[in-house]
Amino acid sequence: MKFILRAAVFHFLFLYAVHVLAIEIESVPKFNDERVIQAELNKPVSLVCTLDATQADEELVWLRNDAAVLLKEGNNKGRSSLCVTPIYEDNGAKFTCHQKGNSTDQVSVTLNVIFAPNISGTVEVTVEEEADLVLECDTRANPLVSSVTWSLNGSLVDLLADGFSVINNGLISQLTANKVKKSLHGGMYTCTVDSPMYNDSSRHFQVTITDKTLKFPLGPMIAGLVVVGLTALLAAVSRWRKIVKCCK
């Protein structure tokens, strides 16, 4: 009796192992134990999905976050490959492969797209006195940046004394100053991002504060000129009629 039970259990485990191994994904770079691929931005990732030899003629389906991937003809029978060039939006993307008509048996891998913050160079900014100054720094990165700092002419921006405010949302860092003054807000601004994986990076903003220009209200001015013109025209017509009447 024990022998029969052991044989039955062994047979079940064998069938289960065959069933599990019937479909699999291989990748370059290889995925880890959590089936996550550490990918770099814009560096190709190769995915290959295969069925065992007994199902070589069966059709395969690829999904990206539950949306079907369009495959070329001949790239879906028994073995199917994908080449993915990761972009920002691919971070966390899940790629799933299964046999067509049988979505119960499927295998998946997930992309973890690693990239550094993309900030560098110098930007020229001109703003009038008493206008608002808004500077933005792209801080998207994976892993997330550790910190973002703003400096003006080599010194950290004083958020309390000089009327600045900073907003950080994980995508951008925005520095704002309302009603700027030449004496306080002109100069070289620097946005510095500290990354736990990559070197620190910075972007510079050369801000020039110009004199405030007097802005004329064009709408009311044009309306006034039209009224004056029409009044003068009506007066001229009235005067002409009086002259004609006197000459008769």
TrEMBL record:
Signal peptide: 1-22
TM regions (residue ranges): 218-238
Keywords, alphabetical: Disulfide bond, Glycoprotein, Immunoglobulin domain, Membrane, Signal, Transmembrane, Transmembrane helix
Gene Ontology CC annotation, any one: cell-cell junction
A biological process from GO: cell-cell adhesion
Localization: Membrane
Membrane topology, as annotated: Single-pass type I membrane protein
Top-level lineage group: Eukaryota
GO molecular function annotation: cell adhesion molecule binding
Domain Ig-like span(s) in chain numbering: 29-110, 117-210
Protein name per UniProt: Ig-like domain-containing protein
Species this chain originates from: Oreochromis aureus (Israeli tilapia)
Lineage: Eukaryota, Metazoa, Chordata, Craniata, Vertebrata
The encoding gene: TMIGD1
